[in-house]
Amino acid sequence: MAPSYKQRYYTPVEVEQHSSSKDLWVSFLGKVYNLTPLVEKNAGDILLKPILNAGGKDISHWFNTNGTNKSDFDPQIRTHIDSRTGCEVPYTPQGRFIHIPPPYPSGTWASDFGTPWWKDESYCIGHLSAKTRKIRIINTLTSQEHTLEVCSEETLEEILNRFYKYNKHAASYTWKYNGTNLTMTKTLEQNGVKDEDEEFYELNFNEEDWLPAIHIYFNDDLTEA
User: In the sheet that 180-181 helps form, which strands lie side by side, from edge to edge?
Assistant: First the structure.
């Protein structure tokens, strides 16, 4: 069994896999949110429809990105001027959703819900990778080869955790690139494994034919399965 750890970064593909009402994730402004509890809490509410339709997708376009940064993360819903009232109101072309007030005064609108879901960090489970890349991992003991899509921000330890689904003894191997031991607390780039995707694209090379290969060498000490 792989040791438990908290995943810090997710690929867009991982987010896409959670698109149902029973298991719904979205990403926005560089973060990933598990909105399944929000959906369960508001089951049957018509205002859930835009969120359900957005399951597994990036919804950064719902938000005003001006002034948003990592040190002062305060997502704000985009707004526009209502042509009928001249007032600034939330801009929701996808449809009004949970915690967005009605465009006009309404006696049925309850504003005592507390923190709107897009500002509630309890839903946040990690960060969306700014850049993913693919690598090959070659087991020199068994000659098995696996291609992994990983996050460029991840350390080799985090990539090892991704690899556990292919090899439950992954920690019992020494990881090397071009014959040099990799430092597991550093990223691929920090270990000298360059990301050359853009160069391959410009040269019209098929990146799948040029993926960097990480070789893993079995050690004597078996980690507990």
Answer: 145-151, 132-139, 213-218, 173-177, 180-181
Q: How many CA atoms lie within 13 A of 6 on its CB side?
A: 5
Residue type for position 201: Y
Q: Give Cβ neighbours of residue 17 (< 8 Å, ≥ 6 apart).
A: 56
Distance of CA 187 to the CA centre of its chain: 17
Please state, in angstroms and rounded to a whole number, the distance separating the CA atoms of residues 154 and 164.
15
Strand partners, 135: 148
Q: Per residue of the chain (225 residues), what is the pLDDT tens digit?
A: 556 678 999 999 999 999 999 999 999 999 999 999 999 999 999 999 999 999 999 999 999 976 555 557 899 999 999 988 899 999 999 999 999 999 888 878 888 889 999 999 999 999 999 999 999 999 999 999 999 999 999 999 999 999 999 999 999 999 999 999 999 999 999 999 999 777 767 767 666 678 999 999 999 755 544
